[in-house]
User: Fold this.
Amino acid sequence: MHLIAPSLLSADFLNLEKDIEMVNRSQADWFHLDVMDGVFVPNISFGLPVVEKIKQAALKPLDVHLMIVDPDRYIERFRKAGADIISVHAEACTHLHRSVFLIKNTGAKAGIVLNPHSPVCLLTEIIADADMVLLMSVNPGFGGQKFIENTYRKVRELKELILKKNSASLIEIDGGVDLANAPLLVREGADILVTGNTVFASSNPEETIRQLKNF
Ligand code: DX5
Ligand code: ZN
Assistant:
């Protein structure tokens, strides 16, 4: 069964606790937290103190997506703030193998993120060590963007690589996921679906999560 990870980037920041409680009550599996530094991506979101507060209210694992340059500097602190899964961009890590083991050594699960333009073959030598690969299906930086169709083929290719290398890595998809493309992504091999706008712009977010979970 696939997992659903609502992205709090699209939540109501003035009433964050209310939205966290909705996710707690819902059939969602994880909280997806988008950390942006205004350098790696053209937007700034939130950082350590906010993650720490979310941890106090969240009853489900925190899936922290770091869109920051040189993330090695902050991995330990995000773990201390409550991250259960920490994902770093391949494009932001000069020594990706080192970053993956920095994450694992904190006790967190290690995810590797690929931007839409980055080929799956970049992961050939590291896939066996990854707990998760996050494929971006939009250019990172903002919620509510249009899904890039090429992602289906990429999921298939990644699934093949995972099987070929005997990796236990999960596949997560992030950006523009909705009720129409979700079943197709799962059919291609996606394990976790991140959803921001589809959930939080819905008139009944809890029901939308239920629909994303059951098809
Ligand atoms: C984009 C973020 C996503 C985003 C997804 O940079 O990584 O997690 O919040 O939002 P939607 O589902 O609205 O595309
Ligand atoms: Zn994200």
